[in-house]
C-alpha cells in the first residue's frame, strides 16, 4: 500500500521560487516513477514533471511550459523534490504529486495521488 504525502507550495510574486516535496508512506520499492501534475481552475490536469525512481530508470521529463524553470530531483528512494524558479502567474494551480507502480507504462494514468497543494503566483 502506498500513500503520498505532499508539503511545500504557497504564494509568491512573479519571478520568485517555491519548492514542493512528496514522500512515499508505505512500500517505496513498489513505485517506479513519481512526479507532479497540476490543475488550474477551469483547466484539465496536466503533467508538470516526472522522474524515474528505480536504479534502471532515473530519467526526468518536463512539460514544455516549465522546461528550464522547474527541476525535479530524488532526495532518496522514497522522496522527491520539485524546485520551481522564475514562477509566472500562469503557474498558479493545485499541484498533485503522483506515482506509478513499478513496471507501469508512463503514459498510463497514475496509480497513486497525493492530496494536492496550492501554488499561487501573483503578478
Keywords:
single chain, four-stranded antiparallel sheet
Structure description:
This protein is mainly beta. It is built from no helices and eleven strands. The strands form two sheets. Strands 2, 4, 5, 6, 9, 10 and 11 form a seven-stranded mixed beta sheet that branches. Strands 1-3-8-7 form a four-stranded antiparallel beta sheet, with no helix packed on it. The mean pLDDT is 95. Helices cover 0% and strands 56% of the residues. Strand 7 and strand 8 form a beta hairpin.
Radius of gyration: 14 Å
The fraction of residues in strands falls at: over 45%
Helix content, binned percent: under 10%
Gap between N and C termini: 41 Å
Report the structural category.
mainly beta
Q: What composes the largest sheet?
A: 7 strands, mixed
- Topology as a string of helices (H) and strands (E): EEEEEEEEEEE
The count of β-strands is 11
- Tell me, what's the shape? globular
> Residue ranges: pLDDT <50 for 5 or more in a row?
none
Q: Please count the helical segments.
A: 0
Mean pLDDT score, rounded?
95
What's the quick description here?
Helix content is 0%, strand content 56%. It has 123 residues and is mainly β.
Topology (elements, then pairings):
Elements (H helix, E strand, L loop, with lengths): L1 E7 L1 E4 L4 E9 L4 E9 L6 E7 L7 E3 L7 E7 L2 E6 L8 E9 L10 E2 L3 E6 L1
Parallel strand pairs: 2-11
Antiparallel strand pairs: 1-3, 3-8, 4-5, 4-9, 5-6, 7-8, 9-10, 9-11
Amino acid at each position: 500500500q502506498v500513500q503520498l504525502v505532499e508539503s511545500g507550495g504557497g504564494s509568491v510574486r512573479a519571478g520568485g521560487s517555491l519548492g514542493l516535496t512528496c514522500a512515499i508512506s508505505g512500500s517505496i520499492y513498489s513505485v517506479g516513477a513519481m512526479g507532479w501534475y497540476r490543475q488550474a481552475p477551469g483547466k484539465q490536469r496536466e503533467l508538470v514533471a516526472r522522474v524515474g525512481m528505480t536504479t534502471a530508470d532515473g530519467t526526468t521529463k518536463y512539460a514544455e511550459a516549465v522546461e528550464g524553470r522547474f527541476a525535479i530531483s530524488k532526495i532518496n528512494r522514497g522522496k522527491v523534490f520539485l524546485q520551481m524558479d522564475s514562477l509566472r502567474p500562469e503557474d498558479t494551480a493545485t499541484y498533485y504529486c503522483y506515482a506509478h507502480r513499478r513496471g507501469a507504462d508512463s503514459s498510463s494514468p497514475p496509480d497513486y495521488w497525493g492530496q494536492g497543494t496550492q501554488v499561487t503566483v501573483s503578478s
